[in-house]
Amino acid sequence: MTKKREYKDSYPDKKLYIPGPTEVREDVIEAMCEPMFGHRMDRMTDLYTTIVEDTKEFLGTDNDVIILTGSGTGFMESSILNLVDENVLVTTCGSFSERQANIADRLGKNVDTLEYEWGQAVKPEDVREALEESETEYDVVTCVMNESSTGVRNPIEEIGDVVADYPDTYFVVDAVSALGGDYVDIDEHNIDVIFTSVQKAFAMPPGLAVCVVSDDAYERELESDSASWYGGFQRTLDYYDRKGQTHSTPAIPIMLAYRKQMKYMLEESHEARDERHREMAEYTREWAREHFEMFPEEGYESQTVSCIENTQGIDVAETIDAVSEEYDFVFSNGYGSALGEKTFRIGHMGEHDLESIEELTDAIEDVAGL
Ligand SMILES: Cc1ncc(COP(=O)(O)O)c(C=O)c1O
């Protein structure tokens, strides 16, 4: 049974290299400290329309954008409710894509899975085969862009191109640990729904989720009688159209932080952020291969979180503790009991740069005696 553990008045600051939440700029945190205002005031319309339109500009999409209080998991659920009448094909290759299958199953949908071993990536040709050979007409195909549990980056662009050949099938992408740190041309690749949580590569405090919705997906939801209330595309987007606000009270302080951080993101640009993340990922992979091995299938390594196979048999938990104690840096063990000690993960997303990643790898080398 969980017992109360008193929250203390102070904790040492730790630099975050976990796969989210990640480091947030100080002035972005400070942006939250404003006197409160009402969610039906004009000021709210100024704030919400600014962050929605800036997000569209940053992502370079003509699709609609929803920013809702909650976390990415909310859109894993509502996209199924909104778009799946009966059948969904969920591609799975790790914990978060398996969560997507579990959610759809709990919502009473008929779930078929295209399963891959953890560490392997989803292949477009397998998706084509599954769609061609199945007797089932799928309402939706889902895919995770970046499987944070294994550090695999799936080729969602090519998978989107495959699903485009099936006009009655919608393509839903969980981009929670990738969007903002790994470029994707949403409109070019038939991505009907793509969502993220702001505490990852957007480098904001947690509490908001962002979802980009195509016109087709919006129209499709109109035919559904089981659409989500809270995360319904129609309800949220119509409310935006009419009032420029959200349908219920949002986490206003986090939206203030969002506004500030999105200015930095626009200044840097989607392409330049992608390039910075590529450099960090390439450096981390090179370092990992010098001392260990990479866990993901070669050619599908993530640009935002490196999952490293512990080929040296270091004590992962002990190393994490020692790096935290001596350097105040925190990185992650492997996901779950199966990968906990077998792998470890370095989150290189958000506001990190090559120099800050080198500081971490130096610290690991020092502590683990590499
Ligand atoms: C790929 C992926 N999907 C979904 C989630 C769930 O996101 P949230 O915790 O914001 O609901 C995570 C969280 O780490 C994730 O990495």
Automatic annotation (TrEMBL):
Residues 38-286 form the Aminotransferase class V domain. GO terms for molecular function: transaminase activity. Pfam families: Aminotran_5. Signal peptide: none annotated. Its cofactor is pyridoxal 5'-phosphate. It comes from the Archaea. Belongs to the class-V pyridoxal-phosphate-dependent aminotransferase family. This is Alanine--glyoxylate aminotransferase family protein. It comes from Natronoglomus mannanivorans.
